[in-house]
Amino acid sequence: GQGATPIAMQKAQQVSQGLDMLTAKVENAARKLEAMTNSKQAIAKKIDAAQSWLADPHGGPDGEENIRGILTEAKKIADLCEDPKERDDILRSINEIGALTAKLSDLRRQGKGDTPEARALAKQIATTLQNLQTKTNRAVANSRPVKAAVNLEGKIEQAQRWIDNPTVDGRGV
What is the pLDDT of residues 107-140, one digit of tens each? Predict the structure, then answer.
């Protein structure tokens, strides 16, 4: 065979570099997915307390803190979103909930938490929070690095075939 010719050595180096790059991409995608999943779980843990606070016109400041925590985690997910439309949609919801929550908190601090305006705000925030959770869950699901793993597996098989038989054209390995 011609396994040790300069061309073969160069090809082997190219294969090695290509696999290193692909491995780095897969590892990066996995880290991103893990961070997004952690934020998704943090949102799930806080959502019930936030909804309870919204349902209680006399609720203390802890509910507002839960909502702020949800918005922080949702922002982390938005920042990691590949799809700009999805990211912008999440950011719009975050801004809307932030503004509505500030308004509701002001009303509650003034002792007006049980007014029709405050109740309508709380209901609107509750609905928007549910929608935000749906959007962040979808963003996490859409970010799964399935394609990268499939490509990595295919590239490794292709590289292995070429390594096993370097005289055959590797078709761009």
Answer: 999 999 999 999 999 999 999 999 999 999 999 9
Say which DSSP state 172 is in: -
Q: Look over the chain and give the mean of its residue pLDDT values, rounded to a whole number.
A: 87
Angle, to 10 degrees, between the axis of helix 62-80 and the axis of helix 6-55?
160
What does the alpha-carbon distance between residue 107 and residue 104 come to, in Å, rounded to a whole number? 5
- Sketch out the chain's domains with CATH numbers: 6-164 (1.20.120.810)
Q: Across residues 7-31, what is the average pLDDT? A: 86
6 pLDDT above the threshold of 60: yes
Compute the distance between CA of residue 155 and CA of residue 169 in angstroms, rounded to an integer: 14
Q: What counts of helices (H) and strands (E) characterise the chain? A: 5, 0
Cα dihedral 15, 21, 26, 27 sign: positive
Q: Which residue has the tokens 């096993």?
A: 164
Look up the pTM and report it. 0.76
CA distances 125 to 8, 14, 156, 170, Å, are 63, 54, 49, 57
